[in-house]
Amino acid sequence: MEAFLSSTLGVAIAEIGDKTQLLALFLAARFSQKNAIVAGIFVATLLNHLFSAVLGVWLAQFVSPDTVKWIVGGSFIAVGLWLLLPDKDDNPDSRWLKYGAFTATVLLFFMAEIGDKTQIATVLLAAKYQSLFWVVCGSTLGLMLANVPVVYLGEMLMKKIPAKTVRIAACALFCALGVMTLAGGGISLH
């Protein structure tokens, strides 16, 4: 259950103000089919985070628990510090928009998540907890919790959430996870 809660909270907070959240805002402004956008975000996130979690679990199988502890702990801290940097407002590639709300959302969200903070966090969480199912469920839920309100409430919500405060809170959360990982006795690979 700790893997699920940590993944949900970590990804939800890290996603606020992220480029994929800006993408959700753009897609909501572009398409009127809000449910199709939400379904597309879910499918893209589930596929991307499943791949990420499999990678994290796989990597942890080939590295000693002590090495995994140092890599994961240090990486959590690095991701935490990375969260302090605001994302650039990249405009989505308009060639995908012709495929409609659902397909455009799946394609654009999947591509935007590649190498994203939340994807890297999912790899790290899976390596730490060795729980593919709970990390994927938690990270997907976290991303949905951060993006679904944006699809339906859009600009009004974004104006009320100070991005700098959220980035600082996310940084603190990931740095705390890193310190707790480094302070622990290792990560169980069983």
UniProtKB/TrEMBL annotation:
Q: Which InterPro entries match?
A: GDT1-like (IPR001727)
Cellular location of this protein?
A: Membrane
**GO-annotated cellular components:** membrane
Q: Which residues cross the membrane?
A: 36-61, 67-84, 96-112, 132-154, 166-187
UniProt keywords, alphabetically:
Membrane, Transmembrane, Transmembrane helix
Q: How does it sit in the membrane?
A: Multi-pass membrane protein
For whether the record's keyword set contains Transmembrane, the answer is yes
Any GO molecular function:
metal ion transmembrane transporter activity
Q: Which family does it belong to?
A: Belongs to the GDT1 family.
Q: What PANTHER family does UniProt report for this protein, alphabetically?
A: TRANSMEMBRANE PROTEIN 165, TRANSMEMBRANE PROTEIN HTP-1 RELATED
Name of protein:
GDT1 family protein
Q: Which organism is it from?
A: Neisseria animalis
List the top taxonomic levels of the source. Bacteria, Pseudomonadati, Pseudomonadota, Betaproteobacteria, Neisseriales
